Amino acid sequence: MDLHLNGRTYVVTGGSSGVGLATVGLLLSEGARVITCARDLSRLRSAVEALPGAERVHAQSCDVRDPAAVASLIASGTERFGGIDGLVNNAGRSRMATRAEATLDDWHDELDLKFASVLNTVDAALPWLRRSDTAAIVNINAVLARQPEIRLVTTSAARAGLLNLTKSLSLELAPENIRVNTVSLGLVDTGQWRRRYEESGTAQSFAEWEAQIAADRGVGLGRFGRADEVAAMVVTLLSPRSSYVTGADLDVCGGVARYV
Ligand SMILES: NC(=O)c1ccc[n+]([C@@H]2O[C@H](COP(=O)([O-])OP(=O)(O)OC[C@H]3O[C@@H](n4cnc5c(N)ncnc54)[C@H](OP(=O)(O)O)[C@@H]3O)[C@@H](O)[C@H]2O)c1
């Protein structure tokens, strides 16, 4: 099935690793152009330069919490490519902390990351999305939004807020034919989990460690997801093939979600 992405331009934040990098790669393979960012420019460049179609990537250092940096990313990306058809708010991480461990600064920091990373990019990209005939926004979220984990208390609460914000954005922007959807992840094998594995000091192999966590958390399919399995759903939601889907929350979680 042709996703009709050829020649279109998409912004993907956090393109140097994991879900963001897989999404950039899939968009390029569909013939799209990509504007992407991360804080570490050299890591971003070496990741995207290895992708087929890398000449269609605009890569820039940008912290998505900084509105001026995001405005600069969108300005230089659109100067190069002439427009934006979609936006994937992916950049971020989760914070391992219980309620007793999390300080007030942790709460401020977590809420700032989850909300600013979406509000800054939407503000900067909206004038361009309004000019597209197939504009779509996908916010990467987590099943934690509906199924909180006490080890991830700030992240769970912030993700619930992001889910709510995404619904509001979908309602606000639907009259302008700009679709806004959420992709909610369970446990996906990316840089975040590789870092946690290294920090754990376990004698297990990564595969054994990962399988144990998947079993402990009750992942129905019994394994972590892969970044390319998430990217396929993100790109489908960006595609005009999903032209009647807005305000939706798509779980890509291997069955770990227990809510109905
Ligand atoms: N993997 C999972 O199991 C899982 C589960 C639920 C939700 N998620 C969410 O999925 C998204 C992607 O995560 P991932 O697992 O693919 O993680 P990852 O492999 O660690 O990649 C994160 C990407 O975001 C960038 N980034 C982080 N903070 C940023 C900031 N403030 N400004 C700009 N770029 C920033 C990172 O580059 P720099 O560090 O160089 O900035 C990197 O490119 C995140 O929002 C994450 O919280 C992941």
The CATH class of the largest domain turns out to be Alpha Beta
Count of beta strands: 9
CATH architecture of the largest domain: 3-Layer(aba) Sandwich
> Kindly, what is the distance between the CA atoms of the first and last residues, rounded to a whole number of angstroms?
30 Å
Describe the structure.
With 260 residues, this protein is of the alpha/beta class. The protein has two domains: 9-187 and 226-252, 3-Layer(aba) Sandwich (Rossmann fold), CATH 3.40.50.720; 189-224, no CATH class. It is 45% helix and 16% strand. The strands form two sheets. It has a seven-stranded parallel beta sheet with strand order 3-2-1-4-5-6-9, with helices on both faces. The protein has a two-stranded parallel ribbon with strand order 7-8. Helix 1 (18-29) packs across helix 8, helix 3 (67-81) packs parallel to helix 4 and helix 4 (104-129) packs parallel to helix 5 (153-173). Bound molecules: NADP nicotinamide-adenine-dinucleotide phosphate (NAP). The site of NADP nicotinamide-adenine-dinucleotide phosphate (NAP) has 31 residues, from helix 1, strand 2, strand 5 and helix 6.
Describe the structure using short key phrases.
alpha/beta; seven-stranded parallel beta sheet; 45% helix; binds NADP nicotinamide-adenine-dinucleotide phosphate
